[in-house]
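Support case: aspartic acid complex. Customer-provided input:
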Amino acid sequence: MRILVKDIVNKEGQKVELMGWVSVRRDHGKLIFIDLRDRSGICQLVFVGKALYEKADKLRSEWVVKIVGQVNKRPPAMVNKDLPTGEYEVLAEKLEVLNEAKTPPFEVGTDGTEVGEDVRMKYRYIDLRRQRLQKNIRNRDKVIAFMRNFLRERDFVEVETPILSKSTPEGARDYLVPSRLYNGKFYALPQSPQQYKQLLMVAGMERYFQVARCFRDEDTRGDRQPEFTQLDLEMSFVREEDVMSLIEEMFIKAVQTLYPGKKIQQMPFPRMSYKEAMEKYGTDRPDLRETKDDPNLLAFCWVVDFPFFEKTDERWTFTHNPFSSPKPEHVEWLMEKKNIGEILTTQYDIVLNGFEVGGGSIRNHQPEALKKVFEIMGLAEERIMNNFGHMLEALGSGAPPHGGIAPGLDRLIMILENEPNIREVIAFPKTGDARDLMMEAPSEVSKEQLKELGLEIKKKK
Ligand code: ASP
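Agent response - structure generated as follows:
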């Protein structure tokens, strides 16, 4: 039966079967050493004797092999202190090649920073074999599993919401999906599950969360991807404080459990108003770390009291989320549509080391209040009803007061893993210019496909 390489340390003198990838081959004349890699790590194999030597001599990097051999303690001078299995090696008795591999486009044994990103992305399935990325992706899973458990223990229910949805005004450009059955009509990929999660509150779920993919057709940057993952959540019968303290507890416990080497600079997390952040730091994402030399320092903070509206091109638009409710003391201004520039929203953003890692708010659960937001934005009655009729209708059907937040998991994990950009913590990211080099997406489609969709392509000049 196959065992993992990490377990050879408990098998001295025993015969074991191992399967994995050839990481490195070292030829020492009459004997060959192979570093064998599997999901648990690396161990050294030794091939001696003419027949085994000749077989092992053919092995190349990244071939997949099965071996049977005996676990031996290495002589003291040969111990490799850098490897958890470094005191042992396996003297091979049988070797079977399970699959050969072409010469890899780059080395897998390094951290990959010496390789051009385009090549790494094209051969991502090989790139992901490197230890650094294995660690990132496995730790990502641990963070997500921790959060899922944390929320379930507190009565939250994970609910999937549609990916084929309707264009929503959340500030970014939508990805559109043409409809075959209704030519000329489009679905939109959700920028976030915002409306669905609120509708789940109307539906009486009370505590919802989802590890949700969000899609925004924006220019890609180091901390932005066309699709990204949020831990989206929403709660009924809550105020700002309830949501903020829940998230704060979750972040602190996740860090303390999964990243005990990290130090959280200040707990409870400091809070400041948008005004204060702008005046003091010139940004609403202040990096509060006392020293930037310490890669293990985490400086969380909350930024609150954002203006609800801002003026662009002579028109009022929301700064964060049209579904937010104003601070209680400003609800009257919203209802009377006065002092618009001074209305503050219940929006709270959570910032970590200068990155926004989440934001949320208490919502307008009364339809008249939500309608006023759209009126202030200058939307005509008909447009309001077309775009948001369902929300107004739902809020008028017994909607509980509710609010939520959505921490961005890619950024959070990027920071926890000390990575310079979110592509290093996403299994299959897009490049900086929004392409998937491995699948070659976006790609052209056939004439038949376009015809079914009732589409014609006009090439940009
Ligand atoms: N939907 C919001 C966003 O994606 C988060 C929230 O308000 O819950 O930023």
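The pocket of aspartic acid is lined by residues 192, 194, 321, 359-361, 404-406 (CB under 6 Å).

Case will auto-close in a few days if no follow-up is received.
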